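Many introductory courses stop at the sequence. We go one step further.
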Amino acid sequence: MLFSATMPGEIVSLSRSYLTRPTNVRAEAHTESEATPQVAQHVFQAHQMDKPEMLARLLQAEGRGLTMVFCQTKRACDRVASDLAQRGFDAAAVHGDLGQSQRERALRAFRNGKIGVLVATDVAARGLDVDDVTHVVNFECPDSADTYVHRIGRTGRAGKEGVAVTLVDWSDLTRWKLINGQLDLPFAAPEETYSTSPHFFEALGIPAGTKGRLPKEKRGDRAGLDAEELEDIGETGKTRSRGHDERERERPRPPRRKRNRTRTRGGQPVEQAAPKNDNVVDAVATERKRSRSRRRTRAGKPTGETTESQTA
């Protein structure tokens, strides 16, 4: 049996290749939206520079538990996770540039509640089952309707309720309208929203007066990523930011070896000439100096020729 939240053409071809006379069974009615019905969905039109502040205030909403934040690129994941850590949140990134041991440590810490925010690419949108995920945030607009369904499906599992928030930038409005039309959602024109908008606080249950940094008295409730042991299973992946791991040091480069180069002419080595006599060298230098001496000219002609013509 093969289970999938969506059934695109690639998955259908895969099932027909390995299964014998497969039968497609849908778990919902054809008239029902593919999006998880028990997930409260919110879509806001946000400015790119204001998104970090909106995310920090959203993470302080009432009843917020484990939260997954999805980004489009690996570099964006590292940037968002680092920014949340500076604001006082226990966050970790998961993407393809991290080694297997680093990804496993972040996922274990997230499942065990040692960190409260997991920032990931779409590598964590499929096949990841974590209990008690209350919020899913699309920090960047997904690229397709299937990706949106898989992302918000990380919450509201096993009959539980969840909250999905999507922040759509101005440049992503066209793409979001296509997703909205395919899923038949009522967010064709998201409301323009900022981190200080009253309807943003009201819709997500954010206490009034919440700022973009976690108060010091609320920090330290979780053990953090360092409390989870990092298993040594070989390659540990790359780190994009040096501040991500303070123990990382730049390795010294080995000294460059000098190569003995042989002068060639027409593909054949040229023998070095024997040292010349000092008198011969001086004579050659004097001759070259004379040949390079400048001649005085007048109207483009040497002065001697001009004088002869005038005399004649």
